[in-house]
Amino acid sequence: FHRTTPEAAVSIAHSDFVISTKYESTMLGHGVYFARSMEETEGKANADGAYICAEIEMGRVKEVGPGAERDSLRGTTHLWKDYDTVYYNHPNDSRDEFCVKSTDQILKWVMIVNQEYDGKVRNYRLDTEFDDTICQCI
User: Fold this and answer.
1) Whole-model pTM?
2) Distance between CA atoms of 59 and 45, rounded to whole angstroms?
């Protein structure tokens, strides 16, 4: 899962993901960042309003934990010659994070824009259950 602004989500939909390169936002080096769930993006992403659920080709994975090795990755690309993904194995499982080096590793994705940012949800009554879509669970 990747969290971003609705505007950035629209940009991604029309073009592609952009590799993060700002020193402050690249704890695991330059790349595209993902978490295991929507909830786990909380407190990581500096943006809100849209989520992208993606299928990722991990390739060769470098696992790091907290400490000097992880800290040495910020703002760098030096692991990309040997690895495709950096996996931050946080002591708290809900804080795990992945950084992929290439947008080519993002195989397919679906985008979710929060309702308050997308009037079409209400305009087209997509926030309403219709008689023929109500679950008839037995």
Assistant:
1) 0.81
2) 23
